[in-house]
Design a protein that fits this description.
This protein is an alpha+beta fold and 277 residues long. The chain is 58% helix and 16% strand.
Length: 277
């Protein structure tokens, strides 16, 4: 079946590519919502996305100024990877069109007024459960860089260091951190505050079982580093105040309204378009 949008045919191979591009995310989404993937539905999703992209491209070409050659060259240089899959003869037209589309969508979003503080406060009050900070830990750490060869010996040295600091043979703050940690010059031994849900499950379970003043086992995040952590403070979960999140709420509501305006405009374009599926 041919897919034609305002007289422009979208080839079947484009539909096939879009189906494959969406497949993984589609299947995850459907199963997460208790359903089973359906090939016909996946194709419908792909076709709908292609139609939306096409009506936006057509409208952008019709309403937006043609970018300068310099701006197109800049686009091709800045986003070289994005255009590398196209034949060389198509790259300039694709870049020109991409710039027009972005300008068109930006104009739509610019027309959306940011919510005022009253609207943001009303949203905050209605969704207070969203504005909380989970239980957290303030940590200090000794960090050592490792590779396959050095990992076993450094792992054992950190186990010995833990034994020494727990027994009082090595002072954590004055000796362990500055003398053993390879990141001390950068972080002074401080590690980012971590909250529940941020770490791999097994590591989180072990760290959150500790009390202030206790040391962890040697922790490997699989990033070429080993850590020995000390818990310095447990931070209880708490509700955030409106003052703490005011700007975030206003920005999020503004962005959501801008996206809604863009989708509404796309729906208008689709309603007016001559589409053959």
């Amino acid at each position: 079946m041919k897919l034609i949008v305002n007289g422009t045919e979208i080839p079947e191979e484009a539909v096939t590519r879009e189906v494959e591009r969406l497949r993984h995310g589609y299947e995850e989404y459907v199963r997460a919502n208790g359903g089973e993937p359906d090939e016909a539905q996946l194709r419908d999703w792909a076709v709908e996305g292609l139609v939306e992209n096409e009506v936006v491209r057509q409208e952008a070409r019709a309403t937006q100024p043609i970018p300068s050659e310099a701006r197109i060259r800049q686009e091709l240089t800045q986003y070289a990877d994005a255009y590398s899959s196209y034949p060389e003869t198509e790259r300039i037209p694709r870049a020109r069109e991409g710039l027009q589309v972005r300008r068109y969508l930006k104009e739509i979003r610019k027309g959306v007024t940011a919510p005022d503080e009253a609207a943001a406060k009303a949203y905050f009050d209605a969704h207070a459960e969203l504005f909380t900070v989970s239980e957290g830990l303030r940590l200090e750490h000794v960090c050592r860089f490792v590779d396959l060869v050095s990992r076993p010996s450094i792992f054992m040295s950190l186990l010995q260091l833990k034994s020494d600091v727990e027994a009082g043979r090595v002072d954590w703050r004055d000796e362990a951190l500055p003398l053993y940690s390879e990141t001390y010059a950068r972080d002074g031994g401080a590690f980012a505050v971590v909250t529940r849900g941020e770490l791999p499950e097994a590591i989180e379970r072990d760290l959150f079982a500790l009390q202030p003043g206790q040391w962890s086992e040697v922790v490997d995040f699989g990033e070429g580093m080993l850590h020995l952590f000390k818990v310095t403070e447990r931070l209880p979960s708490r509700a955030l105040s409106f003052e703490e999140v005011r700007e975030t709420v206003i920005r999020s509501l503004h962005q959501a309204a801008a996206e809604e305006a863009a989708y509404a405009r796309i729906d208008e374009l689709k309603t007016k378009a001559a589409i053959v599926r």
